[in-house]
Amino acid sequence: MRIDKFLKNSRIIKRRQVAKDACLNERVKLNGDLAKPGSLVEVGDIIDISFGKSNLKVRVLEIIDGAKKNNAEAMYEVIDE
C-alpha cells in the first residue's frame, strides 16, 4: 500500500492530500529514508512523521485497505512520540 494511503487509512493523518503534502515536504521517513507519496509500506516497516514541534514514530503491524475507524488503530503501534 502507498504510504499516503496508509497514513490516511490508519487515521494517523486525516486526509490523503495532507499525507501526500507531508511526504512532499520531507516530513515523513520510511525505514530511515525520506518517503515519497508512492513509497510502498509493508508489515514491519518503521514510519517517522514530523508534526511541527513533535514527532511520531510507528511500526506497521497490519495493512487493511478501507479500514473502519475501530480497525485503524490495529494497523500500527506507536514506538516513540
TrEMBL record:
GO BP terms in the entry: rescue of stalled ribosome
tRNA-binding keyword on record: yes
Entry-linked Pfam families: S4 (PF01479)
MF terms in GO: ribosomal large subunit binding; rRNA binding; tRNA binding
Record keywords, A-Z: Protein biosynthesis, RNA-binding, rRNA-binding, tRNA-binding
InterPro entries cross-referenced by the UniProt entry: RqcP, S4_RNA-bd, S4_RNA-bd_sf
Domain RNA-binding S4 positions: 1-62
Gene3D superfamilies cross-referenced by the UniProt entry: RNA-binding S4 domain
Family assignment from sequence similarity: Belongs to the RqcP family.
HAMAP family to which the protein is assigned, alphabetical: RqcP
Complex formation: Associates with stalled 50S ribosomal subunits. Binds to RqcH, 23S rRNA and the P-site tRNA. Does not require RqcH for association with 50S subunits.
Role: Key component of the ribosome quality control system (RQC), a ribosome-associated complex that mediates the extraction of incompletely synthesized nascent chains from stalled ribosomes and their subsequent degradation. RqcH recruits Ala-charged tRNA, and with RqcP directs the elongation of stalled nascent chains on 50S ribosomal subunits, leading to non-templated C-terminal alanine extensions (Ala tail). The Ala tail promotes nascent chain degradation. RqcP is associated with the translocation-like movement of the peptidyl-tRNA from the A-site into the P-site.
Protein name as annotated: RQC P-site tRNA stabilizing factor
Species this chain originates from: Anaerococcus porci
